[in-house]
Amino acid sequence: MPSWQDFEPFIVTGIAAGAVYAVSGVGMVVLYRTTGVLNLAFGAIGALGALICWSLINTVHAPDWLSYLVCIAVGGLVTLLYGMVIGPALAARDPLVKATATIGLALILLGAMSWIWSNNANARSLTLTSDTWTFRLGSVLVNWTQIIALIFAVVVAVGTGIFLRKTKLGTVMRALANDREISATLGVPVRRVEAAAWLGSGLISGVAGLILADQVALDATTLTFLVISALAATVIGRLRSLTLTFFGGIVIGLVDALGNPITSIAPYKDMTPFILAVAALLFLSRRGGAAARARRVA
Fold this sequence. Notes:
mainly alpha; 13 helices; 2 strands
């Protein structure tokens, strides 16, 4: 068994990665609650923005800050275009059909990225400016990208909760999630509200892709399928609770990272999202069943 010192660096990296999974999950939950679409192309969209950012920095020699903004904007633009062009045609379809359609988008983007950025794939890396700002936390060296990831996740999770409860647009989004047809009948501008949800989710995917490209790897396939961890966080939150989704993402990232020093577990740590999601579902369903029985007895 590794010593505590072996685990310390992975606690920091795990929380940072978990924060990105958490904020990605929050973005997916908000979009699902508003439009009924579970966007499985979330990771691919972020990967596209990150690769464009890398090209701007290393080929065009654009300023780093401008390249970062372009990455985030690409996430918002691609998601918004998909939502406005494809979304209306799928509005009345089952959630499974909507999710399957986003898999098609993910495969299209993955194929395009593999074709455009096929050369020197192993030599590419994206290092954010905030990586150079470091400090020591005990014996662990922490960079500001990791801190920014956690702060951003907390701000988005808390801010989204307040936004949905306290603002007019947030109230309309919640109404749309409950019943799209009745909301439209009452005069809710459905297309504009859905556009706001698609845009917001896309901007989050751009930020997530940028941070994960720095913290994990600048690889189209890796970033595309990291959506699985974010999806597991949404499952833990049952596609409703932003709080459970947030903490689910943090736990997934932390448990996954802490498996690295344990050689007997490390080869299987990719199963972490599935195991934690299933365990959470079993616990929550059992708790819900107990609560239902208590109400019947009362």
